[in-house]
Design brief:
single chain, alpha/beta, Rossmann fold, 3 domains, four-stranded parallel beta sheet, about 45% helix, 4 iron, 4 sulfur cluster binding, metal-binding, photosynthesis, chlorophyll biosynthesis
Amino acid sequence: MTDRFAPPATAGCRTAPVLKERGQHEVFCGLTGIIWLHRKMQDAFFLVVGSRTCAHLLQSAAGVMIFAEPRFATAILEETDLAGLADAQDELDRVASELLARRPDIRQLFLVGSCPSEVIKLDLAKAAERLSAAHAPNVRVLNYSGSGIETTFTQGEDACLAAMVPSLPEATAEELLIVGALPDVVEAQALDLLERIGVGPVRVLPAPRASDQFGVGPGTRIALVQPFLGDTLAALERRGACHIAAPLPFGEEGTTLWLKAIAAEFGIAPSVVDTVTEAPRARARKAVAQAADILRGKRIFLFPDSQLEIPLARFLTRECGMEAVEIGTPFLHRRIMAPELDLLAEGPVISEGQDVDKQLARLRAARPDLTVCGLGLANPLEAEGLTTKWAIELVFTPVHFYEQAGDLAGLFSRPLRRRDTLKVGPHDAALASS
């Protein structure tokens, strides 16, 4: 029997040359990670120390109604703060204390740095330490940077989770720690699969509540579900935890290999995984096949945006039959990406970082069937006759594990179907017959 998940006939891309670009780049800032993190951590609050622009960005990105009371806000730096006429630390203490008095349900308070707070060198680490001491043991105050000066938007989650690691207690028990924020329904699917395979106990970072406390230490095994968590992985490894190298759980192949890598770490045979996952694997294959009809043979170009690009390219080329022209990623973490690069057939340009003008020139020369890019590039490229897919949808849409494999493929097939529909629509038909 042919192995569905055999490595590519070529050598893979682990040792392929990487085009490193350091020019103008177009991405959202790390503050946008709050949009999914504040939903995931039920007793946490994210207080951004920034400008009115930061506040408008979060409100617009989250689509929060004026009467809603979300678990994030912006402590706005006024002109007096920026000019040094007021003590920003005293002002921050006052705002945080008023917030905690009004919201006694808060158990974790994150002070989130922004471009303005970093420009004036406001020490949020000192503020977090001071506020933690003042409000302990009811509230734990942490800080991280969401600035978009030199980062991409998914690194906001990485910085947040990395900030949580030092406060986790020491532990020696052998446990699996799933690292990365997932929608609740997707996380439940993952935990159910692991339980039926026989892996346990299983912890999740971030946990829904601060009271869901767990330890970390030499017995902790780390399974990443997002590729952009390099700083969090390093922080956990400094605590003695061990990383399970595996492809990310995108599509049938990535999910199966992710589960088998975890099972092997806990001494469970691959045949057990095959038995437990037989039905969901069949559903995933069927769902992907429906979308793959239009994707097969099509060429795709991925701009650097979220660090999801390499796992997505592996899924699209191996399970959907697409051809990758260029795979751009904001940052290439080689150790995390090694299992993915091994599965990618040689051929595409792999680029790290961005020089947007040079990348646009390569795109226009290649004229791919589908371009995955940010919102700022999509409309101009559509006007040039190129079919595009918004990269940010891949972060906000549930796409992990078997039950979402068809939805993931559908995100890429829909722009092509829309393009074909518009080409043969009534208006075009009328023009063609006139």
